[in-house]
């Protein structure tokens, strides 16, 4: 399978949040309102100004030992993105699914889509609505990658937790690292690697990291939206036949 992919090795993440800040800086996004929620995670969630968020999950195991899990959450750039179908049920050409890289990039035309339906279609709860009505998310730094540069988040990562490159090479890297990590953590796994371009290595139950670390079975294209998608070509053809 051609294109690019991320490999995010959570075992090497120190939660420095350099990737989070680099993403915000490159996209010229403003600051998000923060608040004390009892966690080091800030802001509390992804939003229209925060396309990448280092999530902190703190828990205590059965032996009373504190466990911290860090998860650099972002768009997964699905191989078959359901959000594209959800958006283009309303407006054609609103999503660029780049053939060369596999990047799923939203355009300003997303203003014409139904945000709730788009968000519900995403198995990873990623899309957010901006104040000007656009639906936004990580772009895979499409502009940088097209110019031969690394995504901003990968460029600044000091530990090798963030990696990016040709999919075949990234998959080989991920599987090789998985073999090494499994020697110490038998439950280590790659999450949804066959369906997405943002591949995470975790060592424990994915839900310990984030509720949407793996695809939610409740997400996807609903019946109503599927019907809208199927009937849209016929509607366009009918409008073209009508006078004036």
| Tally of discrete structural domains | 2
Main CATH class of the largest domain: Alpha Beta
Shape designation = globular
> How are the strands ordered across the major sheet?
8-1-10-9
Strand content: 15-25%
Measured distance between first and last alpha carbons: 46 Å
Sheet with the most strands, sense and barrel status: 4 strands, mixed
**What name does the CATH topology of the largest domain carry?**
Alpha-Beta Plaits
By CATH, the architecture of the largest domain is named: 2-Layer Sandwich
Helix and strand succession? Answer: EHEEHEEHEEHHEHEEHH
Structural Rg: 19 Å
Question: Which regions contain 5 or more consecutive residues with pLDDT less than 50?
Answer: 234-240
Structural class: alpha+beta
Q: Got a strand count?
A: 10
Number of helices: 8
Can you give a write-up of this model?
A 4-stranded mixed beta sheet has the order 8-1-10-9. The chain has a two-stranded antiparallel ribbon with strand order 2-3. The chain has a two-stranded antiparallel ribbon with strand order 4-5. Residues 234-240 have low confidence and may be disordered. It has helices spanning 18-26, 82-88, 115-121, 142-146, 152-156, 167-182, 206-209, 223-241; strands at residues 4-9, 53-60, 66-73, 95-97, 104-106, 128-129, 135-136, 162-166, 189-190, 198-202. It is globular, with a radius of gyration of 19 Å. Helix content is 30%, strand content 18%. The protein has 2 domains: 4-76 and 146-206, 2-Layer Sandwich (Alpha-Beta Plaits); 82-140 and 218-241, Alpha-Beta Plaits.
Short description:
This protein is α+β, with helices and mostly antiparallel strands and 244 residues long. 30% of the residues lie in helices and 18% in strands.
């Amino acid at each position: 399978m051609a294109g690019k992919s991320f490999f995010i090795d959570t075992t090497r993440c120190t939660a420095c949040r350099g990737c989070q800040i680099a993403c915000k800086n490159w996209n010229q996004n403003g600051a998000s309102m923060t608040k004390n929620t009892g966690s080091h995670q800030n802001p509390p969630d992804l939003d229209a100004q925060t396309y990448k968020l280092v999530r902190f999950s703190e828990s205590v195991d059965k032996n009373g030992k504190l466990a911290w899990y860090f998860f650099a959450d972002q768009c997964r750039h699905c191989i078959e993105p359901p959000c594209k179908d959800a958006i283009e049920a309303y407006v054609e050409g609103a999503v660029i699914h780049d053939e060369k890289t596999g990047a799923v990039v939203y355009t300003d035309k997303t203003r014409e889509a139904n945000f709730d339906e788009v968000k519900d279609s995403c198995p990873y709860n990623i899309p957010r609505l901006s104040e000007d009505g656009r639906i936004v998310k990580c772009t895979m730094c499409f502009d940088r990658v097209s110019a031969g540069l690394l995504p901003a988040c990968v460029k600044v990562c000091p530990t090798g937790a963030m990696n990016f490159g040709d999919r075949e090479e990234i998959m080989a890297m991920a599987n090789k690292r998985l073999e090494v990590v499994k020697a110490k953590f038998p439950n280590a796994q790659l999450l949804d690697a066959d369906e997405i371009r943002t591949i995470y290595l975790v060592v424990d139950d994915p839900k310990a990291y984030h509720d949407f670390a793996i695809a939610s079975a409740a997400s996807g294209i609903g019946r109503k939206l599927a019907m809208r998608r199927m009937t849209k070509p016929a509607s366009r053809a009918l409008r073209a036949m009508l006078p004036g």
